[in-house]
Amino acid sequence: MKKLVVITGASSGIGKSIAESFSKNGYPVLLLARRANLMEEMNLENSMCKSVDVSDLESVKKAIKEGEEKFGKVDLLINCAGVMLLGDSKNQDFAEWNNMIDVNIKGILTGTNVVLKDMVERNEGTIINISSIAGRKTFDNHAVYCGTKYAVHAITESIRKEVSNSSVRMITIAPGVVETPLLSHTSDEGIKGDYNTWKETIEGGLDTKRIVECVEFAYNMPQDVCVREIVIAKTKQED
Length: 239
Ligand code: NDP
Known about the structure:
Bound molecules: NADPH dihydro-nicotinamide-adenine-dinucleotide phosphate
Number of domains: 1
Largest sheet: 7 strands, parallel
CATH superfamily: NAD(P)-binding Rossmann-like Domain
Order of helices and strands: EHEHEHEHEHEHHE
Number of strands: 7
Number of helices: 7
Distance between the termini: 43 Å
């Protein structure tokens, strides 16, 4: 059997497409997100679905332990869970900032904390963090979201250097706009409307399949090759 792939944020959007594709290609998959019903409805072969909040280390640890007991050690962890709560900083609730920091930053650290040491000791394994183009440049109304994604870039690259003498690969994938429900959680209707109007000018976001292809391209390289970062966006996306 192929080695275990763990995907956070597997109940929706990019994470869901990644989980479907790896399962179809014969990998055992551990799906993590809060909405277990959505993951279970996918009914993927060789899968285990666990309802976890990715910012909670103990529940992520417990879920990964159960996944490993059933399918063997994690070979690929894809940290995809994220929230984008756009806002005007002077009006935005602190709770929204807090949520983005918890999910987008702590949420990539929990799974990493659980698997990294073991991967280094085994001299194998790959961690792919889904960041954003908003982790490379700033955008209006994205202050804290950008901050969290800059952190994803910085953390991934720093750990990559730390573990580079083992065979463990740390990879950042930074998409521009992708067609998913991500924006729907933004509470400011005006900002949401402006974003959707702008999105029409680029004829919509990328299909999630394009991000799956990036993940598979990077993962399927030989273990001694690390595709450190992929930045991908619609050709018409100027910024
Ligand atoms: P979706 O809203 O479709 O998916 C977000 C996923 O994150 C869901 O599965 C959700 O599951 C999960 N999630 C959110 N909060 C938590 C939590 N506390 N604990 C566990 N899981 C959580 O958005 P996308 O697929 O677009 O987003 C995936 C990633 O891609 C994010 O990191 C996002 O920042 C990034 N990205 C997206 C872009 C886009 O334009 N769509 C562009 C660039 C990057 P549940 O609610 O069930 O817990």
